[in-house]
Specification:
single chain, alpha+beta, 3 helices
């Protein structure tokens, strides 16, 4: 009984504050997507493709920003869409992106990768805060 009371004491403020739990699965109304393309004069574009989608989703109890490759339109069968975490956290950028690391331009150091991803992580965080369907321009950072 004491364990149940302790659990409720910890969980209740989080539920009341609208926090998502570790095993929360996002609904369609919680996902934010925005088309993102490389500008002609952009020097620090961190991705190997010129356009894709910036996404904000809930994962592991927190908001996560991701870059999704734009699916090819000419293929008969849909291919697996590559995706990478967009963050300033070195662990998420290196270990979290191991499966699709070829979607990120190779760099000399993790520090350089963090610097290249930072503006897109900030844009994604702003996207997370907007109502669904809102378009946030890169100049609004």
């Amino acid at each position: 009984m004491t364990a149940l009371a302790a659990t409720l004491a910890v969980v209740a403020p989080l539920v009341l504050a609208g926090e998502k739990g570790l095993f929360h699965f996002p609904g369609a109304d919680e996902v934010r997507l925005q088309k993102l393309s490389r500008a002609d004069n952009e020097q620090e574009w961190p991705f190997t493709v010129s356009s894709g989608y910036l996404a904000c989703v809930w994962s592991a109890g927190k908001r996560m920003v991701m870059f999704l490759e734009e699916p090819a339109k000419d293929e008969a069968e849909p291919a697996r869409m590559r995706k990478v975490f967009v963050s300033v956290n070195p662990f998420e950028l290196t270990l979290g992106n191991m499966a699709d690391r070829d979607l990120i331009v190779p760099v000399d150091s993790v520090e350089t990768l963090v610097k290249r991803m930072a503006p897109f992580a900030a844009l994604g965080e702003r996207l997370c805060d907007q109502p669904q369907g809102t378009h946030v321009r890169q100049g609004e950072l």
